[in-house]
């Protein structure tokens, strides 16, 4: 198993390769594509922030931000594959008291449900798996529940933080794949799989298989 320092080093290399995808830009300027593309950028930012927090020993905050990272890639995928035209229009309106209400529905779980038979099956599987295994604990951290109290009070096992970083890298991989799809370039989509193979030791098992 990689040490945390080595994992963080390798994770930066993974991030560097995936970040280059965003240099290509989206395939077109449609509101649906742009909305999903922007949300991919949000997910990328969360990934970078999580590793910086972990590097500085701010583990509670790092875990909290992983839920935001998960929600960003979920919404990016949902916006492209499943959101209604009305929802896209509301999402892309100039921010106002009225348009901010566009975020209230659907819930994260509803978005995943709506993506079934629309988004790639593997993407839905990974989002479902992540939510089933991580959501309850992440909510506890975000809402200052017992997980945050106990872990912050008694210390974080290194293996837990290693697993968190790998999970975040998995979400980063999903974000990169979504961004690659949005470029419309099949070669970039294939490159994502190659990058995953090169960095499989810093990815969760579901992605590195």
Topology:
Layout lengths: L3 H16 L11 H25 L3 H23 L3 H8 L15 H8 L5 H22 L3 H9 L3 H26 L2 H13 L6 H4 L1
Helix pairs in contact: 1-2, 1-8, 2-3, 2-8, 3-5, 3-6, 3-8, 5-6, 6-7, 8-9
Largest sheet: none
* Helix proportion range: over 70%
Rounded mean pLDDT is 93
Low-pLDDT residue spans: none
| Domain unit count | 1
The H/E string reads: HHHHHHHHHH
In angstroms, what is the radius of gyration? 17 Å
- Number of E-type strands: 0
Number of helices: 10
- Termini separation: 16 Å
Shape: globular
Give a verbal description of the structure.
With 209 residues, the chain is mainly α. It has one domain (4-93, 104-208). The chain is 74% helix and 0% strand. It has 10 helices and no strands. It has helices spanning 4-19, 31-55, 59-81, 85-92, 108-115, 121-142, 146-154, 158-183, 186-198, 205-208. Helix 3 (59-81) packs parallel to helix 8. The longest helix is centred in the last third of the chain and has 26 residues, at 158-183. It is globular, with a radius of gyration of 17 Å. It starts with a helix and ends with a helix.
Which key terms come to mind for this protein?
209 residues; mainly alpha
In short:
InterPro entries: DUF6988. This protein has 209 residues and is mainly alpha-helical. Helices cover 74% and strands 0% of the residues.
